[in-house]
Amino acid sequence: MKATKSETRIVGIVLARNEDRFIERAVANATAFCDHWIFADHGSSDQTPVIMEKWAGNLPSAEIHRISKASESHALLQRYVGEDVWIFGLDGDEVYDPRGLARLRQRILSGEFDANWMILGHALHVTQISDDYRWASGHASPPCRSMTKLYNFAAISAWEGYCPERLHGGNLVFRGAYGNDQRAMLHETGPWEESDFRCLHLCFLSRSSRDNNSGPRANLMEIQGATQLSLWASRVGRWLGWRPGSRWKDERYRRGELQKVEALEFFDN
Length: 269
What we know:
By secondary structure, the chain is α/β, with parallel strands linked by helices.
């Protein structure tokens, strides 16, 4: 029997590894959006676990896990498959507009997106942000790829197979008339300034107090496809506090002209 709309829930899952520069702000801006939170720390050696533990202890409904492989994070979501639950994936470099999320939550709970499998929103893939957080510049989605992660688990009966991390990869089995093309493309239907689902994606900035430079981290897909030699070089670089960058992110998140936006509203609460 289909759950009533009063039973619809939004569950947030944070997967992080050495993200202590921005993760506090990322979580703070999104806490009211979700009814329950799952924190998964993937072997952090900076202050990320401390920050996660603080939020897990202070939020009304939250749990925290220590995982040895990023792929273990997807198993934490299996209990929600087929339920009237929206899953919101949050990374430590994703700072959302909290006021927009509040509006989006009401739209979701009203049933506006019941026919959708996924909601995609605006993102600015930030290459620079001012010291006072008044402005940020970067490349926007569109034309770049949107990396927002918000999925309707009522639309699926299974999400199995190998997932390198939560909400990525694997084999989806949809229920009824649902399909992968049923996406609400909010980033294509209105301007950044009016969006209810917009994110400063700080992927080109240093994300940890352990980093000595501001280069972007390699994507998990890059790491898995890398040769043993490049992996060894990357490990040595991380040990020295240097990162070789990310071709994957450059190709997907540096499209179009640089744009500059007001950012203080993402950091003023």
